[in-house]
Amino acid sequence: MPAPGPRxxxxxxxxxxxxxxxxxxxxxxxxxxxxxxxxxxxLAAFWLLAAGAAVIEWRQVGKLERPLPMRLALLGGxxxxxxxxxxxxxxxxxLLVAALAVAAVAAAGRTPRDRLWGLVGLAVTGTLATAPVIxxxxxxxxxxxxxxxxxxVWGTDIAAYFTGRALGxxxxxxxxxxxxxxxxxxxxxxxxTLAGALVVAVGEALGWERPLGWPAIxxxxxVASVIGQVGDLAESKLKRHFNVKDSSKLIxxxxxxxxxxxxxxxxxxxxxxxxxxxxLVG
Length: 282
Prior knowledge:
With about 280 residues, this protein is mainly alpha-helical.
């Protein structure tokens, strides 16, 4: 009779790469949703911490020179934008602070290349630190708007991954991200659109105001899903350009903050642009 094997202790999955990724994602989702529900300074602090980590990673990914001055300029500019988003989110003040942050980052760069990538980094970290707060506090969007962003981004990402693995097929952008397929793109688009609409529907059922008509919500959810996937590809292209696999090892099983917020930042930028255009038209 063969000797019995070691008894399972139930921790095999949790020790696997998939298990580690799952637990990390679960913690991040809980923190994101919890801070979104609370709002205010807690929400701002959560995303400012994420932006601060992204600042450190950005310098490493872009291999920028003069690391200390550039990090200080990026951190200072991101912090100033975050504070403004909380206490005085008026257009004039935001533009003034943004202009000062741009000037600081440009001054910190030694070469035109460093100035360019530093300013791109400021756009990423500034959007990450401010957009969730601005959307959450917006009278027409509020918690529904922020949860809509989460739903579209997460729904798209999860569906694209599993649909691509299940169906395979032609590659979406083999030179940029060999693992992505057109089937995954379509699956992500469908689920991301449905997830965005579902969040708005649930919010409306709970008595939260629906900011737009249903046709607009469905169309914007689909557009945001596509933009999120383009943002994901852009970050993959950036890492390939600089020959970097992961932006850092901060998040177990996932890499760095920049590896996880590419689609989120792209969709946030899309929403902020929409708010600016709406303000100009109104």
